[in-house]
Every structure is written in structure tokens, then in C-alpha cells.
Design goal:
The complex is a heterodimer. Chain A is mainly beta. In chain B, the strands form two sheets. In chain B, strands 2, 4, 5, 6, 9, 10 and 11 form a seven-stranded mixed sheet that branches. A four-stranded antiparallel sheet of chain B has the order 1-3-8-7, with no helix packed on it. Chain B is globular and about 40 Å long. The relative contact order of chain B is 0.34. The chains are: A mainly beta, B mainly beta. The interface between A and B is medium-sized, with 24 and 24 residues.
Chain lengths: 112, 113
């Protein structure tokens, strides 16, 4: 079955520290992969996406993600977290022509 | 700036009421989606539409219906609201390209008493 797993429900990091949010997917074909961010009271905003090509993808706000087919993973990283990065992050996989499967989200807290 | 707007940010309704949630996009997108967001469950697809008057069921369509009479507008209808439909509802749109970026509205937090 197609699925997306975000194993960390909550993550807390100090401002300036590095960040890695984990995402594992289960999908038979080559996946289309996305990371979205949801700030409090807002809708989701696309951070980055992977369709094909270079497995290291750069996104907005200094985020990057690496697609590892052998591990079925698409982890999100940022070298130095800012207080404004506190939000909920969702990994998603495109599954079929119009369907997207979202993970359950990881809520990031940033300590000053 | 591309925009997806939803008619209400907060809505409180009574059990049994008919509820309409409206979504409008200004990007001339072919595809529109309604999701439900609940803590610990992520986003679950209720319905989507890939063209005017066309609709497809998502993963949790029970208790919901949709209407798309114009390209820019996609409505979610709760025929008889129940307390288990208390949730955050998110609308999204995307271009006709398969699996392109989705653009989300700010959400409607619906409480059914």
C-alpha cells in the first residue's frame, strides 16, 4: 500500500542548530516527493519538490532535501534553524495522476 | 500573487445542519481538492475535481459532497453535519500538469456542536 511515514511527531531544536526531519515513503513506481510547511493559522506552503534528476533538492527558506531510493527516504534538512521556522512540516508523495498522500506531520519547536 | 481563498476561517454549526464551505482560486487551475486535517492523521483527501462539473471521491468521502460549477470555485457540502466532522478543512488547487505543486487556502476550522 502507498504510504508516507514521518516518525517524529515533535522535534525541538535550539536556534542556530541544524535540523533534519525524516520522511519515509512506500510507493511502487518512481515517486514525486514534496515537503510542505504549515505555519500556525495558515495553509500549507511548498518548500521543495523532487520529480527526477539530482537527488539533492534545494528549496525556499534555506531548506534542502535528499532523495535516497535505496532507503525510500526524502529527509528535509536545514543547516541553521531560525525561530521563524517553528511550524508543522508535511512530507507528501504523488501517487497516481491526481492523488497525493501526506504524512502525519512533524511539529518543530525552536528554542531561543 | 497566486491565491486560494476560503469563505470562512472559523465556522460553528449545529448537528444536522447543512454546511457549505466555499473555495475560490485565481490561478485558472484545472484541479481542485478538499482535504480534512486532524491531529495525528495528517491531511486526508475528501474529494477532488479535475475539471468543471467533474469530481472524484478521495479517501474519506462519506458524509460529504462537492460542487464545481465554475472553474475557479469548488464547494464542499456537509449534507447533515455531525460532531465527528469537527475538523480543519483545507482547499487546494493545482495546474493541469499531473502531480504539480498544490496551492493551499488558509483553511476553515469547523466546529459542529
Amino acid at each position: 500500500a502507498q504510504s508516507v511515514t514521518q516518525p517524529d511527531i515533535h522535534i525541538t531544536v535550539s536556534e542556530g542548530a541544524s535540523l533534519e526531519l525524516r520522511c519515509n515513503y512506500s510507493y511502487g513506481a518512481t515517486p514525486y516527493l514534496f515537503w510542505y510547511v504549515q505555519s500556525p493559522g495558515q495553509g500549507l506552503q511548498l518548500l521543495l519538490k523532487y520529480f527526477s534528476g539530482d537527488t539533492l533538492v534545494q528549496g525556499i527558506k534555506g531548506f534542502e532535501a535528499e532523495f535516497k531510493r535505496s532507503q525510500s527516504s526524502f529527509n528535509l534538512r536545514k543547516p541553521s534553524v531560525h525561530w521563524s521556522d517553528a511550524a508543522e512540516y508535511f512530507c507528501a508523495v504523488g501517487a497516481g495522476t491526481y492523488k497525493y498522500i501526506f504524512g502525519t506531520g512533524t511539529r518543530l519547536k525552536v528554542l531561543a | 500573487d497566486v491565491k486560494v481563498t476560503q469563505s470562512s476561517r472559523y465556522l460553528v454549526k449545529r448537528t444536522g445542519e447543512k454546511v457549505f464551505l466555499e473555495c475560490v482560486q485565481d490561478m485558472d487551475h484545472e484541479n481542485m481538492f478538499w482535504y480534512r486535517q486532524d491531529p495525528g492523521l495528517g491531511l486526508r483527501l475528501i474529494y477532488f475535481s479535475y475539471d468543471v462539473k467533474m469530481k472524484e471521491k478521495g479517501d474519506i468521502p462519506e458524509g460529504y459532497s462537492v460542487s464545481r460549477e465554475k472553474k475557479e470555485r469548488f464547494s464542499l457540502i456537509l449534507e447533515s453535519a455531525s460532531t465527528n466532522q469537527t475538523s480543519m478543512y483545507l482547499c487546494a488547487s493545482s495546474s493541469g500538469l499531473a502531480l504539480g505543486e498544490q496551492f493551499f487556502g488558509p483553511g476553515t476550522r469547523l466546529t459542529v456542536l
